[in-house]
Amino acid sequence: MTQRRALLASALAGLAVPRLARAQAWPTRPVRIVVPDAPGGGNDSTARIFANHLEQALGQPVPVDNRAGAGGRIGVEHAFRSPGDGTTLLLGNAGSNGINAALYRDLPYNLETSFVPISLLVTGPNVLAVNPRVLPVASVAELLALIRSQPRGHFNYATAGAGSSAHFSAELFKAMTDTDLVHVPFRGAAGMAQAAVAGDAPFLIANMVNVMPFIRRGELRMLAVTSLDRWPDAPEVPTLHESGLQGFETIAWNGLFGPPGLPDAIVQRLLPELRRIGALPEVVDRIKLLGGTIVTSPPEVLAARVRADIAKWKELAQRANIRIDG
């Protein structure tokens, strides 16, 4: 009996060796990072910064594959249907991998369980900003007074896309202030920022990383941040919570996920590289210039963030009557 068990254990171990060896040899081919956003935004920038350093660490090309549209659903579904062999990763975010669970009923995947969490990468608040040439206001109170001085629906606001964390923040802003603002979604942050700077959509709520360059140049004016506490890199800017919208809090984030079936050995291979890259001074500085903070983490922290966000967004969407599809 003991001999039979030993033979069985030896056979099972032999079956496991090729799979382990393949994971240890990974990668032998290029590793794509799918970004469910258009080029030029904060999530795209994060992916490219990390991809550049991962190429050196892994010894394989790490191209960024932008698949924007449908509030991030196109890119996320593409990653979901990709093989879990380590040749495809997903740079998900608060909208594509969190808020969408509250806004859409027809997702072909489960955002809590379908993807393999690897690591959080960057967090940052959303910001409420205006084009000061078109809306010469210096505070949230002044902006609300201006909005309420005009007929309902007179003003529009821009976001980088329907279903983004910025869109959800703006809809929550509307609900909490009882204002009627027309949503103008763009297919990515670049178009949104250009429209705001041109004055076509002079009021916006956006991820900080998407608008900081324009704020630094004075083309946009930041009135408030959406975090509950003031952001350390912009301590002079008040929060919406302290500007009269008590309890208002939304945080933008992005993180790295794998498709279903991604081996844990590949996750463990990536984690130390992501931590190392995230600690490089030049990477920290580049992300900080965009208005973000690097927060590389264990997989369970990213999984917990997704679960907590989905629960929060579903409750807020129901309370504020926010939904995109019927």
TrEMBL record:
Protein family according to the UniProt entry: Belongs to the UPF0065 (bug) family.
Name of the featured protein: Tripartite tricarboxylate transporter substrate binding protein
Gene3D superfamilies per the UniProt record, alphabetical: Bordetella uptake gene, domain 1, Periplasmic binding protein-like II
Pfam assignment, any one: TctC
Keywords tagged on the record: Signal
Signal peptide: 1-23
Keyword Nucleotidyltransferase part of the UniProt annotation: no
Stored PANTHER family: BLR1237 PROTEIN (PTHR42928:SF5), TRICARBOXYLATE-BINDING PROTEIN (PTHR42928)
Taxonomy, superkingdom: Bacteria
